[in-house]
UniProtKB/TrEMBL annotation:
GO terms for molecular function: lipid binding. Pfam families: DegV. The lineage of its organism: Bacteria, Bacillati, Bacillota, Clostridia, Peptostreptococcales. The keyword ATP-binding does not apply. Keywords: Lipid-binding. The keyword tRNA-binding does not apply. InterPro entries: DegV (IPR003797), DegV_C (IPR043168), DegV_domain_contain (IPR050270). This is DegV family protein.
Amino acid sequence: MKIVTDSSCDIPRELIEKYNIDVVPLQIEIDDKNYSDGVDITHQQFYEKMKTSLGLPKTSQPSPQSFVDVYQDNIKKYGQILSIHLSSKLSGTCHSAMMAKEMVGEEEGRIETFDTLSGSFGVGAQVLEACHLVEQGLDMDTIIERLNEYREQTRVVVYLETLENAVKGGRVSKPKEFVANLLNLKPIVHVEEGYVRVLKNIRGKKKGMKFLLEEIEKKNIDYKDRVIGITHCDCLEDALILKEEIIKKFNPAEVLVTTMGPVIGTHAGIGGILICF
């Protein structure tokens, strides 16, 4: 079975290679120039460009043909493809994958699409879980059943350092940004039923990081066999500090730290930190 995903997954390159995952890139437009995410622009290059851009970068879903090309390359070789994607409530990526499935048909094998109802490492965690299930030799129906359960258990919470990108995107007014800066308010958002919703406003970064830890604790489970993911918007030092606190407090099997890609990073803004647990 072949696992396919899209570039919103924010899975570290070494794991993509380890599990032989095919990644279909979303498209990014910055200052009237177009890029394929992860192909001709790196995460770091994206953040450097975003810092100096007057407008908000725009992202767009892959075309159905992009998926068709990947599916046709793999279906004869693997017989089965499980295509796992960014929340359909946030992007048309999953719809493009479903259209491609219909275009390819099932004469050569079986193709299934899976909506993670999540973003960034919320997608990546589900992709990696699927890879582990494939390694166990489980069939497609069982893997999808297990993924549905895993999706229900997975939480994604994001700390926003700034509202600058929300202002650029027209979602927050300048006066509201001024008040937030004046009061040092840091919004915390989470992914719920596939949508991004405000969870709380916190005063200051220190309290914001404490709140993230409290959210992990609130789940009230033993993390010794679980992986916790952290993705960050060009703020590695903060992410590593948070990683150490998570290890000290919860002793999980692993804490993966990676950069947040353009798809979610565009809206989170510089300094944003996402946790997936």
